[in-house]
Amino acid sequence: MVSRSALPSARTSPENSGMTISLVTGANKGIGFQIARGIGGTVLVGARDDTRGRAAETALREAGVDAHHLRLDVTDQDTIDAAVKWVADTYGSLDVLVNNAGCPALDWDVPPSEVSLDAVRRTYDTNVVGVIAVTNAFLPLLREAPAARIVNVSSRLASLTLGADENSPVSRVNLLAYNSSKSALNSITQAYAKELRGTPVKVNAVNPGFCATDMAAGMARYGKGMRTAEEGARPVIAAALLTADGPTGAFFDESGLLPW
Fold first, then answer.
1. Which of 46, 60, 113, 233 could form a disulfide with 35 if both were Cys (CB 3.0 to 4.6 A apart)?
2. pTM recorded for the entire structure
3. Is 178 a catalytic residue?
């Protein structure tokens, strides 16, 4: 059981945070861009589109960030392998992996029984298979770091407990492909945390909140009080910079632990 006091805050950071090498997938816009902007150290801007990735790199550098575009499509093993080789040749290790790249909900207003298998496959290819592919590929480099962190960007919609609670707003958002992919992501988080328990590598899932990004465009009808992408990045950054006494195998946001 992870105590609430052990959870990270936006102020949490290791003493050597300025020396970290971090890879953020899907970092060319939205929450990923804000994570890259605020995480510190050297940031590898994972993006599948070279033009957008380089534009993000330029914007981050203008903001004082030591940013480097890294072509990376989480659904393309060749780009993953090439990215791993480049990081290995350039740095020799990786301190932080933020699995932020995600497929937005493709099943708005579609009953589960009518969701296309194409939408399900596209969602799972990025949100589930892509995370496994990237994590497995970079894990040897993460093991080379003195205290690596893996952060999986999840969602409150991943919570089976909240989804089954008729009094929770989560239960009103019945997206078969998206919700179940994020539930699977949480299960993946637990699996890696169990494998890596007893090592310096910590693995956690973080809910950035309901943020005003392109991916959340269809969610406006479900609630108010959308956060900015910068606000959504804060708990992710905190998890990426956990100290040695921080949790592993947990699911949380800025308010504390979330139910699985």
1. 233
2. 0.91
3. yes
